[in-house]
Amino acid sequence: MFNELGGSSGKGLDPEKISSVAVDTLKKVKAGFEALFTLVRFGRLVYFFAILAAAILLSGVLVSTVKKGTYQIRQMIITGTMRAKLDPGMWPRLSSDIVTWPKAQTFFFTKDAEGGDEADNSIEVRFNDGSLCDVSGTMRIILPASEQEALDLTTRFGYVDYKDLEKKLMLPVVRNALRLTANLMSARESYSEQRADFVFWAWDQVQNGLYETEEETRKVVDPVSGQEVTKTFKIIKQDDQGNYVNQRNPLRGLGIQLANFEVKLFDYTEKVRAQISTQQTAMMAVATARAKAQQAEQEALMAEAEGKANVAREKYEEEQKKVRAIVQAQQRLDVAELDRTRAVIQAKQRLDVAKLDRAAARETKQQEILIGQGEAERKRLILKADGALKQKLEAYVQAQQLWANAYANRRVPTLVMGGNGAGDTDKATTEFSQMMQLLVAGQMGLDLSVPKGATRAEK
Q: Angle 195-208/171-182 helices, nearest 10 degrees?
């Protein structure tokens, strides 16, 4: 290193080389520290990822997630305490045992692989005629909605999980209901007229418990031979109100609800299908023959009925004619009676009107007489009071106007010769006027003189 700095025996150190070596040394130290820091950071990152990996590995042990459509039952390892979580979300697992249940599930008892199982899960039943059949269907199972009922399925009734419940409870319930229902009818009846009864009775027993049954012997008509035979039947027991009597329901108190029960397929054996086909053919032939016989009988009855109907129709028509004639005669009689009644009423009305007219005439006559008497008495009193002065004056004035007008329009000569003076004409006029006044007044009995002793004001 001394040589690198430019030093030798007999010579001093080179300053430039000293500076260059110092810079290189500092760079190496910095690179060393950077490498050290890089190792530290990498170690922290590795530590973080190690913790994250451990958390991921332990998450299944520490917490559990309840998915939608399910619920979980947790049992603590040490204490054995059990709890149920019905709502979706995470909750502490704490290394406990957790079982997941569905909130609702479809139960398949089918022959095909519809339920996800390749095995044949159909249920074999035997009818009361000994025929066998595999019945396939589905049913919806709704698990409890409360925490206590969900826990009771495990703690009280001992079902470990849903598969255990389906195998130990639901399958026996459905199987017993189907088999007892099949025992209430024949294969042919389940194929035809009692197919709806089969589904209804089976569903009723699944929900409410198996039926109580009893045997009954009665005579029936064989559908093929048409002969009356005696048979023993198993029937459903009924109470006093006519309701079916059920045994204890194994689903009672579990909080389980059932829905959408469906019987999809009746898979009869080949022998049973052939037997049903033969029975159906024979029954159809019997039904056809019976129908033809009934048709012939019906036609005869119809012919007889038609003859009777024709006789009755003719009799009815004659009766109707008679009734119509009677009705028409009665109508004419009623019309004549109405006309007579109307004429009597009209005559009476005219008589009443005449009587009223006479009475009115009498009243009018009496009224006019009274009016005339009153008017005469009024005029008499007026004449007695003033001697009919008003009327006389009016007549006097009119008479004066008449002769005055006539005198004024008289013809006189244009030229008058002689005379006793200028006042002769006026005097003659005056005298004539006075004469006419006196004449008219005398004729009318008017006294134009002024009584003696009257004052000027009275004049």
A: 140
**The residue count for the chain:** 459
**Which H or E run contains 80?**
none
φ and ψ at residue 314, rounded to 5 degrees? -65, -45
Structure tokens at 146: 């409360």
Distance CA 428, CA 417 (A): 16
DSSP letters for 327-353: HHHHHHHHHHHHHHHHHHHHHHHHHHH
Identify the bridge partners of residue 265 per DSSP, sorted by sequence position: 136
Residue 278 near residue 268 (C-beta atoms within 8 A): no
| Cβ–Cβ < 8 Å for 443, 392 | no
Q: Could you report the per-residue pLDDT of 242-261, keeping only the tens digit for each?
A: 999 999 999 999 999 999 99
* CA distance readout (Å), 144 to 102, 152, 248, 344: 10, 10, 20, 96
Neighbouring-strand partners of residue 134: 124, 267
User: What's the pLDDT tens digit per position in 71-111?
Assistant: 999 998 888 889 999 999 999 887 788 999 999 999 999 98
Which backbone phi and psi does 222 adopt, to 5 degrees?
A: -65, 130
